[in-house]
Structures are given as structure tokens and as C-alpha cells.
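Progress against Task 2.4 (sequence-to-structure conversion) is shown through the following example record, which the project officer requested during the mid-term review.
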Amino acid sequence: MMPIWYMEHRISILLFQSVIGVLPFAGYLSKKKNFAVRFIIGTIFGICLIELFVHTGILDINMLRSGITRAVASLLVFFFTIIVCYLAFDENFYTALFVASSGYIAQDISGTVKTVIKLVPGIGEMSSVLNGVIILDVFIYGLVYLLLFIMFRPFTRKRESIFHNKEKAVFSAIALVFCIGMARLSQDNYDRNSLAIGAEAIYQILCDFFILLLQFGVMERVELRNGVDTMKELMHQQYDQMKRSKESIELVNEKYHDLKGILDGYELELPKDQLRALKKKIEEYEEFVSTGNHILDVVIAEKKELCSRENIELTTLVNGAELSFMDDVDIYSLFGNAFNNAIHATKKLPEDERFIMLTVSSGGGTTTIHIENSFDGNVVMENGIPKSQRDPRYHGFGMKSMERIVKKYDGTIAVKAEGKVFNLDIIML
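C-alpha cells generated for the chain above:
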């Protein structure tokens, strides 16, 4: 039996416990200005309204033994928890809905743990006095909230991919209604023995905990979907870049032929040394762009200019005709990403150590692509992919895009670091 004061304010206490239960899951959410003030005022406002409902008879505290009344009171607590979250956090309604349901479930787990612990001889008597039940609440709720914070922190810290999603918010609300309703179907019967009460409490704890796991499972699916959306956006950007680069290279080729014709016309007027030097520059460009594949020509033209600015020695031994089975966009994306990674790694070295070498060959019914480049010898692998130091949010997207393309053509891709040389090998059937 709980103290009279505790029973009279039970619903308000549940609201306080629920809003505190939000905090283990909301540490990485954006907070509005004067967050603490908003959080406290919102909680006090909700408590005052609940007390008003109780004192005016809208909520009959004496009917809390009824499962229906308990469910209504629980839904009211959930509603005010959402309001507090929406007022305090600089997030949309669906995020407030999600964290509010997580907070309520955390409160429900803690309250059910307390029910089990109260079955222990001596502790039940302790909860019958006001000081005793407050100490019990502080200890149990504090411990459970701390454990939930530790367990779910690896998920909640992935802030940019977890929040702002209607799907997970609606799922959370449905799960909460299920939790509130189903867990109270048998609570009208107070003639149950201690064993039955304990068994039902443990079952409720497990249900609550698995609902939390499902919620964060939805998050993982959302994160995967966001990753796919990001890759699609990157592919779209690469496609646009490929078209622009192709048009630029075609324009340069036209000007190259025009320039050759102009130089031929000035053959008798220009000094032979100057004419030879100009033609040599043009011939260097002509040799460079003739790989046998016009898209690969575009990629190499782009990257050679970048390598030149970074003083990186670029060597290519390429039979571009062997890539005729690949789509243009795939060629641009595959080689573009490979070159970008190589250039980024190589430019960290002293200028006399910078090099990139590309070879494309075929034989035995397979096409082999090999890229090697110098690097500083420091590489951290994560899930078989060199970990990006540029932007953790896009870690591995370039490599994953390459893997997707290679797999499309029934190929394999492998990376290996030997000393200060990084090797990328691709074999496609």
C-alpha cells in the first residue's frame, strides 16, 4: 500500500518520471534557447493541469484501480510528455513524439521493476511510507534510466541519420498505445498472488524493452535508407559532372583540331623552334586523351589537370576499348572515385614521392584494373574500407559506389597497403 499523498498525486508523479525518462534518449537533440527553463516550465504546466483535472473530478483518483481509468491517465501523461518535448527541443513534432514515447516506456520499465522489487520482504513495507517510496523511486528510476542511456547511446548519438522521420514516430506512438493498453488488461484483478504479479511484471518489462529495440531497429532501417538516398544524390551529381566534363573535353578537342590547322597555316611565318614547341604541347594533349574510351578520356583529363596542380606524377597504361561493356556513368563514377581517393592520399607526401599509376588490361575473358599510389603508410580500415578522414558522414560512400559498380559486372574489388604504396585491384568478367 502506497502513502496517501503519493496516491493522490500519482498521475503528476508519472508525468515527472516520464519527462525525466526522455533525457537518456534526447542527449543529442537540438535544444531551444533557455532549454532548462522551457523543460521545467512545460513540466510544471502539465502537472498543474493534471492536478486541476483531479481536483475537478475529470480524473477520479479513486478510480485508478480501474484498467480503463489507468489507461486514460497514462495517455494523458504521454500527451503532456510530448508537449514538454516539443516546447524544449528544437525539433519537429515527429521527433518530439518519438522521444516522448521512449521516455514513457523508460518510465514504464522503471515502474514495473519497482513492482517486482516491492515483492521482496521488507521493501514492500518501505514503500508504504512517503520517505521510503521516494528513496525507492530515486534509486530504481535513476538506475534504470542510466542503464538505458548507456545501452542506447550508440544509437542516439547518430543524430543526423536517426531523427526527423514520420515512420519511426508513428511506429513509436502505436507501440506505446499497445504498451499502455495490453499491459493493463489484467490489472483490474487485485486478487492475484505474488508469483502472478511478478511474472506479469517481468513480461511487461520484456515487452517494453523489445518495443524500444524495435524503435531503434526502425532507426537503423531509416539510416540505411538515408545512406541509399545520399548515394543516389552523389551519383546524380557525378552524372551531371560527367556531362559537363564531356562537353568541355569535346569543345577542347574541336579547338585542338582548329589550332593544328592554324599552326599549319603559320608554318612559314613562325620560327621553327616556336612552332615545334607549340606542336609538342598539343601532341602531349593528343597522346593523353586517346585511351580508346571517350568517357575514360574525360576522367583522365580532369584528374591529370588536378595531378599537375598537386605535382603528382600520373602514369597511365590503358586500353580503354576493353571497357566498352560498361555504361558511361559507371566508368565515370568508378574511375573518378578511384582517382579522387588516390589523389587525396598522395598529396600528403613530399612532392618527390607523389605518384599514381593506372593500368587497364584484359585477358582470359576478364578485364583487370589496377591503380596504385603512394601514401603516408597510415590507413585505418573499417568494415573492409579505408576510413575517410575528410567527412565522417560520407565515410565509404565512394568505395561503396565502386563496389556496387564492380558487382554489377560480376567483378571483385580488393584493396591492399604495402609499405607506402596503396593498391586497388578490380577484376570484372
